[in-house]
Amino acid sequence: MCLAESIDWTQTRQTFGQPLIRHQVIRHKIADMSARIDAVDAYLNQICWSVNSGDMPVAKICKEKFFTTKALEFCASEDMQVLGGDGYLRGHPVERIYREVKVMAIGGGSEEIMPDLAVRQMGL
Q1: Within 13 A of 102's CA, how many CA atoms are on the CB side?
Q2: How far apart are the first and last CA of the chain?
Q3: Residue 83: pLDDT band by 50, 70, 90 thresholds?
Q4: Domain 24-121 has CATH 1.20.140.10
Q5: 33-40, long-range: CB within 8 Å, 24+ apart, which pairs?
Q6: pTM across the whole model
Q7: How many CA atoms lie within 13 A of 47 on its CB side?
Q8: Taking the C-alpha atoms of 34, 37, 42 and 43 in order, what is their torsion angle to the nearest 10 degrees?
Q9: Under 8 Å between Cβ of 84 and 13
Q10: HSE of 103 in the Cβ direction (CA atoms, 13 Å)?
């Protein structure tokens, strides 16, 4: 959602006579968001493959949970930067995601609990 919103916004928003997407710093933000989303997706696919094979990789699930919420925080923050003031408007999807990202990170185990649980599941 955040990545798609940023891409749509940067293709239509004009700054200094050109679309925002033409600015290198914006392109790098989009690349960073996309890379983190791809990493979350790849790790989730690996976990699903393990589960479908009969394994229950609890440590990997814990690591995926906190990695995903960190990626969501990053993407929400970067999207807010790209959208500028418009992203802060009440009712805007990015404003809601930015506001609720901490709740998503805490539910089901906080960022402090999940890494510890992962390490214990690794036998350490």
Answers
A1: 2
A2: 37
A3: confident
A4: yes
A5: 33/2, 33/3, 33/6, 33/74, 33/75, 33/78, 33/79, 34/3, 36/71, 36/74, 36/75, 37/3, 37/71, 37/75, 39/67, 39/71, 40/64, 40/67, 40/68, 40/71
A6: 0.85
A7: 16
A8: 140
A9: no
A10: 5
Distance CA 108, CA 114 (A): 9
Q: What is the 3-state secondary structure (H, E, C) of 94-124?
A: HHHHHHHHHHHHHCCCCCCHHHHHHHHHCCC
Residues 6 or more apart whose CB falls under 8 angstroms from that of 56 comprise 50
pLDDT, tens digit, 9 for 90 and up, residues 7-46: 999 999 988 899 999 999 999 999 999 999 999 999 999 9
- Measured distance CA(54)–CA(32) in Å, rounded: 34
User: In Å, how far are 56, 68, 98, 103, 104 from 8, measured between CA atoms?
Assistant: 39, 23, 18, 26, 25
Per residue in 45-64, pLDDT (tens digit) is 999 999 999 999 999 999 99
Decide: 82 and 26 in contact? Cβ < 8 Å: yes
At 113, the pLDDT band (50, 70, 90 cuts) reads confident
